[in-house]
Amino acid sequence: MSKKNRNISELQNSIDTDFILRRSELNTLKILVDKNLNKPEGKLFAKNLIVFLYAHWEGFIKYSSECYIQFISHQNLKYKDLQYGLLAICHLQKMNEYFESKVALKVLALEELFTNMDNKAIIPNNYSIATYSNLNVETLQEICLIIGLNADKYSLKKGIIDEKLLRVRNEIVHGAINQISPDDSIETFDLVFPIMEEFKNDIQNNVSTMKFNVNYNA
């Protein structure tokens, strides 16, 4: 078991440190765009800002989610304490084995699952969050379901994430002569970065309120 993120302090430090480093790098690029709004270099810096913004968007969501799973894996929870997303990844391999099996074997698998709910949960703390190199709203909602965050509210961000960020980033990295303006790149930054911060706050709120434990009584 990983020795990282064993308690709230370690988790907070991991996520905050990563977030601050990403914010610093993005702010440096944003300043370059802002200083060159009316210069030819401005459009080049604007493209760089979008590409790096997407990289940090995907990187932070993946990293913070995996840190959160590591943290939960150290909390000595039982299977019955887990939200459905984490319960699913605990049994993912076995579920996959039985999906194409006969009905009788599926019944046995379900029986084993429900009769072991009082056992200590073995959570794969090295579980890798899949972003498919294309972290759109649909994938973000899938991640939220896995780690137990409110997925529905992020559906309202589809226009920002899928259109303003992801579509433009894909055009740039796939060689299209995208003419995004410096002003547009700054606007995208100002819309996307708060979503990263909101995701960070959602994880930290889940930790502070013990929401990751469905049987916790405050």
What would you say this structure looks like, in words?
The protein has 2 domains: 153 residues, no CATH class; 44 residues, no CATH class. It is 66% helix and 0% strand. It is mostly helical. The protein is elongated and about 65 Å long. It contains 8 helices and no strands. The mean pLDDT is 91.
Give a quick rundown of the structure.
It contains 8 helices and no strands. It is mostly helical.
- Tally the beta strands: 0
* Unreliable stretches: none
Structural class: mainly alpha
Overall residue-averaged pLDDT value: 91
Q: Spell out the helices and strands N to C.
A: HHHHHHHH
Count structural domains: 2
Which term fits the overall shape?
A: elongated
Backbone CA Rg: 20 Å
Specify the biggest β-sheet: none
**How big a fraction of the residues is strand?**
under 5%
- Helical segment count: 8
- The helix fraction, in percent, is 55-70%
Gap between N and C termini, in Å? 28 Å
What's the topology here?
Blueprint: H1 8-35, H2 40-73, H3 84-90, H4 92-99, H5 103-115, H6 137-147, H7 158-173, H8 182-208
Helix pairs in contact: 1-2, 1-8, 2-7, 2-8, 3-6
Provide the descriptors you would attach to this structure in a database record:
66% helix, elongated, 218 residues, mainly alpha
